[in-house]
Amino acid sequence: MPSVTIKDVARIAQVSVATVSRALNGHGNVAEDVRNRVFAAAQELRYTPHAAARSLSSRRTQTLGVVLPDLHGEFFSELMRGIDQVARAKRLHLLVSSYHGNPDEQGAALRAMRGRVDGLLVLSPFAETPTLLGEHLDPSLPTVLINSQSGLDGAAVLRVDNFGGAVAMVEHLVASGHRSIAFIAGPADNFDAHERLRGYRDALARLLPGTPEWVLQGDFDEASGHRAGRELIDSSRRPDAVFAANDMMALGCLFAFAHDGLRVPDDIAVAGFDDIPLARYVHPALTTIRVNIAELGARAARLLIAQIAGEAADEAPASTSDLLETGLIVRESSGSRLLPRSP
């Protein structure tokens, strides 16, 4: 049986070969009913575009590269879910690599992407990201940085409002009557962690002037949250509330308190940051700062696709910056010292 060609799809869909090509490649200048007709014809004929030939003719791989510090945990699975939804809608493939938080492995992953992808999504949380990336990124390759510092010409940057979210949480805890608020910080070289710590410090100084900060070191994982919780349990005094710089550390801290018999929020309040899916299902449900993590990935993918399309139109890639807003989610774990406590 002879192989099906793009001309066969065009004949069945009653459109030109060029229209079939534009529709299957996800270009926007195709009417929706025409696009649906093309897809239906391609499905009926079981037509699959020849990837190598298409790449040679368009100089495109139809693939987006994604370079992340890790693939483990709910944050990264939600981020990938958002990226994948956009890529699938545009009929694009993903090439994903993790560098396990190692700057040297990050450089190797970035170099390995060259010639294999049409653009890059990079989550590089290191404080010195511009210097690290500048040594390994191809400046001609469209790139979107996620939750990273700016500083690379031609790279779009999409960040979460980490500072504003941390300020909002401290405001909530203070408004709830908590006056001694400990903070479990993230890694010292992490940009997100730095911004969340800055928000905690600024809000504390403004709302409770003269109150000393209480910062415990964490590493954005459950184990470090548990260690911080044990440190608070063993200290000579106890704070009114603990604000962890991410939900995973908050959950580890909750476990330490529960194991020691401390009641949350009656004895001590706990809050987190990110609103991972698990946050609402623990007991007590976790007060946190919501980051629409899937939308973060989806918006980054849309920014990258737009940048690739702009380059195809011979437009110079622009350096842009976008901020993803956060929202306060109040649940049982933060409690209130303004209300009567249970006996």
Can you describe what's shown?
This protein is of the alpha/beta class and 343 residues long. The chain has three domains: 6-49, 434 Repressor (Amino-terminal Domain); 60-160 and 292-325, 3-Layer(aba) Sandwich (Rossmann fold), CATH 3.40.50.2300; 162-291 and 328-334, 3-Layer(aba) Sandwich (Rossmann fold). It is 43% helix and 15% strand. The protein has twelve helices and twelve strands. The protein has helices at 6-13, 17-24, 32-45, 51-58, 74-89, 103-113, 129-134, 162-175, 191-207, 222-234, 247-260, 293-312, and strands at residues 63-68, 93-98, 119-123, 143-146, 155-160, 181-185, 214-217, 241-244, 269-271, 288-290, 321-324, 327-329. The strands form three sheets. The protein has a six-stranded parallel β-sheet with strand order 2-1-3-4-5-11, with helices on both faces. The protein has a four-stranded parallel β-sheet with strand order 7-6-8-9, sandwiched between helices. A two-stranded antiparallel ribbon has the order 10-12. Strand 3 (119-123), helix 7 and strand 4 form a beta-alpha-beta unit. Helix 2 (17-24) crosses helix 3, helix 5 runs parallel beside helix 12 (293-312) and helix 10 packs across helix 11. The chain starts with 5 loop residues before the first helix and ends in a 14-residue tail after the last strand. This is LacI family transcriptional regulator. Keywords: DNA-binding, Repressor, Transcription, Transcription regulation. Residues 4-58 form the HTH lacI-type domain. GO terms for molecular function: DNA-binding transcription factor activity; transcription cis-regulatory region binding.
